[in-house]
TrEMBL record:
It is a multi-pass membrane protein. This is Spore germination protein KB. It is found in: Membrane. Keywords: Germination, Membrane, Transmembrane, Transmembrane helix, Transport. Pfam families: Spore_permease. Coiled coil: none annotated. Belongs to the amino acid-polyamine-organocation (APC) superfamily. Spore germination protein (SGP) (TC 2.A.3.9) family. The chain crosses the membrane at residues 12-30, 36-57, 78-95, 115-131, 143-165, 185-207, 219-241, 269-294, 306-326, 338-358. GO terms for cellular component: membrane. It comes from the Bacteria. It comes from Bacillus sonorensis L12. One of its GO terms (biological process) is spore germination.
């Protein structure tokens, strides 16, 4: 682990940027149709439970990297193997995020640009930041968070002023019952974006006020969930369910409909900046997790030396995981949540926490006798 410290305020900002980034880009919980905003709120509740579980694991050894803690709890061979599996998982998720934002840039602004060039520019910025360490990433988050807030508030006001919101599009609430909503929760919104909070177990050891970690994290996830639910509700009320389902990037489609006084329009370019900022932070956090994992498992004294290699691997993976955007989206909806996110975000962490709890009780009994 590097010798760095970040504040709880910086953690709060990073979690919100992380949770909102690619979640604003696509349509989470779309199978719930007009009740997608409810699926996100239920997913938020699940995210709070998952963060509490990850916080328990963090408390096993607050001063150590989660990779080191896993090897202490499970033994070196099994712990090393699972740690390596998580490195692959974090790299894969980073590649998927990179592909999402690369496709957004190509679809919205640079249609004739090869995907590898767009992705290459994005990953280059992430490589530079991760090389500087977690403190630089946290400070950058504080700086750019204000810009995102101003642009988001401006967009919300302009949508209202344009008279685009039609609340009837959100009705009937639970028209198909609670079933589709819960199905969307357990196949989509629980894992994306809230289950991905597992990667923050790599950042929690750097907090300068460990006692406030849980409170800060829960507040950040709760606020992120409310903002995301509001965003989805606005997209549905402006575009309707059908257009939201067909649109690749609903938020940009919503912004494109803004027209005030017949001259203020085509603002989607400005809001692409908000999305790219969020994507940058999310990719950087996952890349940092991969870098730290490689340094811990292979006992590297200078992790910054492998950041370039990791960035190139993620770049190559991002363009090779799918031949086109339709295949990429289909894989992300049908395959990834159940076969990738579920075991890595919920099943394995729960088993590791149970093992840590069992070992803790076993140690207490041995000390007693």
């Amino acid at each position: 682990m590097e010798k760095a410290k970040i504040s709880n305020k910086q953690l709060f900002v990073l979690i919100i940027l992380f949770e909102l980034s690619s979640s604003l880009l696509i349509f989470p919980g779309q199978s719930a149709e007009q009740d997608a905003w409810l699926a996100i709120l239920f997913g938020t509740a699940g995210g709070l439970v998952l963060f509490s579980m990850h916080h328990f694991f963090y408390q096993v050894d607050p001063q150590s990297s989660p990779y080191e803690t896993m090897m202490k709890v499970l033994g070196k061979p099994l712990g090393w193997g699972l740690s390596f599996l998580y490195i692959i998982y974090y790299a894969y998720v980073a590649a998927r995020i990179l592909r999402d934002f690369g496709e957004m840039l190509l679809t919205s602004a640079y249609p004739n640009t090869p995907i590898i060039f767009a992705n290459g520019l994005l990953i280059a910025v992430c490589i530079f930041t991760v090389r500087k360490g977690i403190e630089v990433l946290a400070r950058s988050g504080e700086l750019l968070f204000g810009i995102m807030l101003v642009l988001a508030a401006t967009g919300f006001i302009l949508i209202i002023c344009s008279g685009l919101i039609h609340l009837n599009e959100l009705r009937p609430v639970l028209g198909n019952g609670i079933g589709p909503v819960m199905d969307a929760v357990f196949t989509q919104t629980l894992y994306f974006p809230f289950g991905e909070i597992i990667v923050f177990t790599l950042i929690l050891p750097y907090l300068n006020e460990p006692k406030k970690v849980k409170k800060t994290g829960l507040w950040a996830i709760g606020i992120s969930g409310i903002i995301l639910a509001l965003n989805v509700a606005i997209n549905i009320s402006v575009l309707g369910v059908d257009l939201n389902m067909r649109s690749r990037f609903p938020l940009l489609s919503t912004i494109q409909t803004i027209q005030v006084a017949e001259f203020l329009d085509r603002l989607d370019v400005f809001f692409m900046l908000v999305l790219v900022i969020g994507g940058f932070f999310k990719m950087s956090v996952f890349m940092y997790a991969v870098t730290e994992g490689v340094s811990v498992l292979f006992k590297m004294t200078k992790p910054s030396k492998v950041v370039h290699v990791i960035g190139i691997v993620i770049l190559i993976l991002s363009v090779s995981i799918a031949s086109n955007i339709s295949e990429h989206v289909k894989e992300g909806i049908e395959f990834v949540p159940v076969y990738v996110h579920l075991p890595m975000q919920i099943i394995l962490p729960a088993l590791i926490c149970l093992a840590a709890l069992w070992k803790k009780r076993k140690n207490k009994k041995s000390e007693k006798y």
